[in-house]
């Protein structure tokens, strides 16, 4: 699915694909999320290809699967990155949703790329739409 919202920086809207979206000023902040069992590195490479030569900063949640592949992509292409880990031991079942909120509020992504996942990914998409951050849901 294409982005849900209008980019607050450039005005790119729902009909525009990732490679048509702006670089959001000097650095685009891309949040990568998805399932813990997601392991399609080739698909990550394909989706992230438009960003290889751009100044990007990757935000991810520190879980295995899509988050880890986002981190690997950032390291491989010398992009800055930040990991937001959920505090499962101290926050219990609400830790994932709280971490998702933190990634949006503190990480300030300009684009969310959501690979296939479960309830945590759905929550990330929902929160991103609420904050009017463009979301690109990726098919398997």
CATH architecture level-2 label = 3-Layer(aba) Sandwich
User: What is the straight-line distance between the termini?
Assistant: 12 Å
Report the CATH topology name: Rossmann fold
Q: Determine and state the CATH class.
A: Alpha Beta
3D shape: globular
InterPro entries: YAcAr
Pfam family, one: YAcAr
Domain YspA cpYpsA-related SLOG: 29-89
Q: Can you describe this structure?
A:
The protein has five helices and five strands, in the order E-H-E-H-E-H-H-E-H-E. The chain has helices at 41-48, 66-76, 88-91, 95-105, 119-130, and strands at residues 28-33, 56-60, 80-83, 111-114, 135-137. The protein has a five-stranded parallel β-sheet, with helices on both faces. Helix 1 links the parallel strand 1 and strand 2. The protein is globular, with a radius of gyration of 14 Å. The model is unreliable at 1-24 (pLDDT under 50). InterPro entries: YAcAr. Residues 29-89 form the YspA cpYpsA-related SLOG domain. It holds the Pfam family YAcAr.
């Amino acid at each position: 699915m294409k982005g849900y919202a209008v980019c607050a920086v450039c005005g790119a809207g729902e009909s525009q694909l990732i490679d048509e979206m702006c670089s959001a000023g000097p650095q685009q902040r891309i949040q990568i999320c998805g399932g813990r069992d997601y392991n399609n590195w080739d698909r990550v490479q394909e989706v992230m290809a438009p960003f290889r030569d751009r100044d990007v900063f990757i935000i991810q949640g520190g879980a295995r699967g899509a988050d880890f592949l986002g981190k690997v992509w950032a390291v491989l292409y010398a992009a800055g990155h930040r990991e937001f880990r959920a505090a499962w031991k101290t926050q219990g079942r609400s830790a994932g949703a709280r971490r998702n909120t933190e990634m949006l509020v503190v990480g300030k992504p300009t684009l969310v790329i959501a690979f296939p996942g479960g309830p945590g990914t759905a929550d990330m998409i929902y929160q991103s739409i609420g904050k009017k951050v463009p979301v690109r849901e990726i098919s398997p």
